[in-house]
Amino acid sequence: MSHLLLALSRTVLFVVVVALLPTPLLLRSTAHSQEIPDMIPTVASHADHSHHDHAAHLAATLAQLAVPANLSVRQDDRAAVLQWDFDQANPTRPLPSGVAGYRITWGPASQPEANVRLTQHRRIQLQPLENGQPYVARVQAVDNFGRLSTPSAPISFTGDGTRVEALRTRMNGFFDDFNLPQGGADERKWNTAYSLCNAPEGNGYFINPQFHVHNTIFSRDCDRGQQHNRARALLDFSDNGTRTITFDFDGVFHRNIWYLDLMPNLSDIYGPERFPPGGLRFSQNNQTLEIRRFDANGSEVTIAIFHRC
Length: 309
Description:
The protein is mostly beta strands and about 300 residues long. The chain has a domain at about 70-155: Immunoglobulin-like, CATH 2.60.40. The protein has helices spanning about 40-65, 160-170, and strands spanning about 5-10, 70-75, 80-85, 100-110, 115-120, 125, 135-140, 155, 175, 185, 190-195, 205, 215, 225-230, 245-250, 255-260, 280-285, 290-295, 300-305. It has a four-stranded antiparallel β-sheet, with no helix packed on it. The longest helix is centred in the first third of the chain and has 25 residues, at about 40-65. It is elongated and about 75 Å long. The two termini are about 25 Å apart.
């Protein structure tokens, strides 16, 4: 999940990581009785007691699992973030006793159980959505044996493109939200280049059904293969003015490690150990933003560091 939207004064890199719970495998043994009359009542009597004991145990287990509550949803363009019992100040606090994770069922209002997701988190992104179409979701707690709690109260939501459209209006230069059908990105906006030593069959730059952009690379004959996607837009500073670059992250959690290179020319592939002189690199790692330039030798030189408290 998640997607990254870069707007140059204005991309979208959708990255969704879902942690799946191990799905329990239920093994059922069926006994075939032989024609031994004195054993039949004993086997039948045992099976009957076992069934009632299992039902009683299951009912007790369901009563012990906390039912997810406090559901809320944040609607966004073709996606929504659903959360329950979530503590913003402590997002990784332990799950309730006996709970190994959660099962989310969601879908259009006419098919509310069309999709199923498993997660160990209390927050999840649901996508792709059709903006304006009503959807419904429920959440159940799951224990280590795959047993479920009572479902939560249903929550309704839809996809809402209002925020992204407002961003599109504010930005008057390059803009791409990658809301295209599954397949290649818009070649009128992006130039893609690969190292010559890459295996052609292992390279790819594509949009998946969730509007996530993926880069794949397979270095066949070299250990420093490159794949670059360059926006077909110039960031013009000839008027000595200021420019705005926006990374818009709509993922379930903050995407706080990234970098952006601004190059002084249209060079697509550069040497593995140096960068084009005169370029700038902006990078963020958690709460630290750093700006570096590439000197005449192509080496990185730090020129500014900002720490956010």
